Amino acid sequence: MQFLGHSNRLILLAEDDTDDHELLKNAFNEIDPAWQVHCIANGKKFVQHLDTIQDDQLPALLVLDYNIPELTGVEIVEALNHRGRYLGIPKVIWSTSASPVYKAKSIELGVADYVIKPSDIASFRDIAQHMLSFIKS
């Protein structure tokens, strides 16, 4: 799948589990090797890093682990919702938890979706494809 309307082929991932990071990165690269996945394992550092990116270089997608150190995925979204330049970037929260409370809170904050992390490697590609579907071309 090509996303020709996006000049910056960057996905910023907030994830502290190296296995999940590698599996998701590989899934995005299988779909389209032009996607670059940059991972930050700490919520506070994620927001700080995002704030250093120039407007024309902002990522096309933010994928946020619900339970990440210092700031959770939901707390990251809350922080970003107060900064207008991030409103157009789709945000997906993913988690090992199927908690309806976590999902409701995430959706209430305006994320594109709340996704349960897959338990098998084969499903990572499907999850990545689903996440990419929120990027407007």
From TrEMBL:
Q: Which InterPro entries match?
A: CheY-like_superfamily, Sig_transdc_resp-reg_receiver, TCS_response_regulator
Q: What's this protein's name?
A: Response regulator
Q: Which residues form the Response regulatory domain?
A: 10-132
Q: Which UniProt keywords apply?
A: Phosphoprotein
Checking SMART domains in the record gives: REC
Species, as recorded:
Chitinophaga horti
Q: What top-level branch of life does the organism fall under?
A: Bacteria
Does the record carry Phosphoprotein as a key word?
yes
Q: Where in the sequence is 4-aspartylphosphate found?
A: 65
